Amino acid sequence: MPLHDEALNVEGGCNCGAVHYKVAIPALAQRLPRPLAPADAPVPLPFIALDHCNDCRRTTGSLLPALLCAPIDMCFVSLVAASSATLAPKASAYKSSHERWRWFCSRCGINIASTAVMPAGFPSMLDITLGSVRREYVDGEALVPERHLWWDYGVDWIQRLATEGYVTLPIHPDYRLTDTVTLRRPG
Ligand SMILES: [Zn+2]
Questions:
Q1: pTM for this structure?
Q2: What is the DSSP track for 37-63?
Q3: Which ranges form a coiled coil (predicted)?
Q4: How far apart are CA 178 and CA 183, in angstroms?
Q5: CB 126 within 8 A of CB 116
Q6: How close is the Cα of 147 to the center of ligand 1, in Å?
Q7: Mind listing the pLDDT tens digit for each residue in 37-96?
Q8: Which H or E run includes 128?
Q9: How far away, in angstroms, is 66 Cα from ligand 1 center?
Q10: Residue 185 CB neighbour total at 10 angstroms
Q11: 13 CA to centre of ligand 1 in angstroms
């Protein structure tokens, strides 16, 4: 589901609170189209994708990371002042693959985003892990992934999980296996 047409702010950060970011997404009319998308079906930036590539799976530690891929001009990142914590808050990066850097909090280790040398014609981008977005922004339907990226590099059963779910598995409301949830399906 594409982002809504209205302007939208999205906030998030790392787990310890040292790194905070805000993405100021303008109304649809002000969003640039992503290069390398069909001319008759433009994809405005930012967009949200499930990413099946091996690098993003490993660096996020998530089976299937979802990314908010935003032009860096829309993104504002801040650090809280150093406190009594043993490690001063800092956003650090390392190069995970050819021309891509992974940004993480040096205090709590959360992978927040990645940047890359982009192909000609692309704006500079910040690919933000959707899991680092604050819960109130993830609730509702504003930030639902709209497409799968790097499908050809994915793991078969993760792709099955993402497209069909595992509807025959028992579902438990919490960590105990004593209760199960019965799914109600529309229709
Ligand atoms: Zn942190």
A1: 0.91
A2: S-TTS--BSSEEEEE--HHHHHHHT-S
A3: none
A4: 16
A5: no
A6: 29
A7: 999 999 999 999 999 999 999 999 999 999 999 999 999 998 876 555 555 667 788 898
A8: strand 125-129
A9: 20
A10: 5
A11: 8
Q: How far is the CA of 43 from the centre of ligand 1 (A)?
A: 32
Q: SS3 for 160?
A: helix
Distance CA 38, CA 139 (A): 30
Q: What is the tens place of the pLDDT at every residue in 120-175? A: 999 999 999 999 999 999 999 999 999 999 999 999 999 999 999 888 899 999 99
C-alpha 2 – ligand 1 centre gap (Å): 30
Are the C-beta atoms of residues 110 and 132 closer than 8 Å to each other?
yes
Question: How far does residue 92's CA lie from ligand 1's centre (Å)?
Answer: 11
> Which domains occur in the chain, in start order?
8-164 (2.170.150.70)
- Cα torsion through 165, 158, 139, 184, rounded to 10: 10
Distance 18 CA to ligand 1 centre (A): 5
